[in-house]
Amino acid sequence: MTRLDHTFVTREATRAVMTALSDGGHTALFVGGCVRNALLGARVDDIDIATDAHPDAVIALTEAAGLKPVPTGVAHGTVTVVSDGMPHEVTTFRRDVETDGRHAVVAFADTVEEDAARRDFTMNALYADGDGNVLDPMGTGLSDLSRRHVRFIGEAARRIAEDYLRILRFFRFHAWYGDAEAGLDAEGLAACADAIEGLAGLSRERVGHEMRKLLAAPDPAPGVASMQACGALGQVLPGADAERLAPLVHLEQQTGTAPDALRRLACLGGDETATRLRLSKIEARRLDVLRAGIGDEAGTAELAYRHGAEAAHDIELLRAVTFEAPLPATLEADLIRGAEAVFPVRAADLMPEYSGAELGAKLADLERRWIASQFTLDRDALLA
């Protein structure tokens, strides 16, 4: 019997939730990401619990145990139980009644096998009881996880037809948990290629959420290249090209630069990215700065002065892979110099001789001269 060796299994706050359900005569099982990640030795962020108890029973039992149930998704069988300040998502076993490729109509189920059969990938259909004993209802989850093989449960085409977002999840899970050398599951990839038109019916919020998660993986390049090959990338980001993503990831790793979804989006290019992925205004502005900076003639120090050291560093990485050139030899020094530079002239220094539009133009002219001097001209020299 495979067992989980992770602190959340024995944590008092979590055990209180499991015990409240089991003492009430119900099954309570850890499920999904917490089980998968614990077995992989990866970080566990969220605790999901599956149970045969219906939401009203979950609420009653956990309240009686002194916990705080919050009906966050009762219609879908989910109650968030807060124990010692920690949220636990408790969801009743479910089975799909009807699907349309975007949303599913579900009904409560009685067994863990029914609950497992409606999930997306075999590695996500792993459960564990309160003692950490792992259950594999589909029979292939543990072996697939050990091989880091991302595989749809049952027939891939059917799983995708239930929710076309699973196409993007297939590439995202491969990027995070798959074996890059072994490549993607052939049946799954073929099913994704056959169903890419279904992506057009998904909300842009859902697509943007998945793409951010995919591009934040340590190395999403092989998965994104496969997305492009099967047509999925062009469906969600027309005009995007994955060719330079692998060199960017390699350069990030060489320079110790943390993965970043927006930097990688800038590398991919594409049309109307902010709209298609529902980026926030802050994200959209940053993306515009990065893309514009690639072809900008400004040096590293000026970029750091105008946009900050982080953005300037990202732009230099993007320039390096775009133009197949080495990073500037003085990169770090220029980043610091530009980020710390402070323009020494203020509007008051030019008044009342200048005002209105003329004042703004003069300030801009002096700032250009100051930047051209590599920030060496002082206030007196500029005003003279």
From TrEMBL:
It comes from the Bacteria. PROSITE patterns: PROKAR_LIPOPROTEIN. Residues 30-151 form the Poly A polymerase head domain. Keywords: Magnesium, Metal-binding, Nucleotide-binding, Nucleotidyltransferase, RNA-binding, Transferase, tRNA processing. Residues 187-242 form the tRNA nucleotidyltransferase/poly(A) polymerase RNA and SrmB- binding domain. Its cofactor is Mg(2+). One of its GO terms (biological process) is tRNA processing. InterPro entries: Bact_CCA-adding_enz_type3_sf, NT_sf, PolA_pol_head_dom, PolyA_RNA-bd. GO terms for molecular function: metal ion binding; nucleotide binding; nucleotidyltransferase activity; tRNA binding. It holds the Pfam family PolyA_pol_RNAbd. Belongs to the tRNA nucleotidyltransferase/poly(A) polymerase family. This is Poly(A) polymerase. It comes from Tranquillimonas rosea.
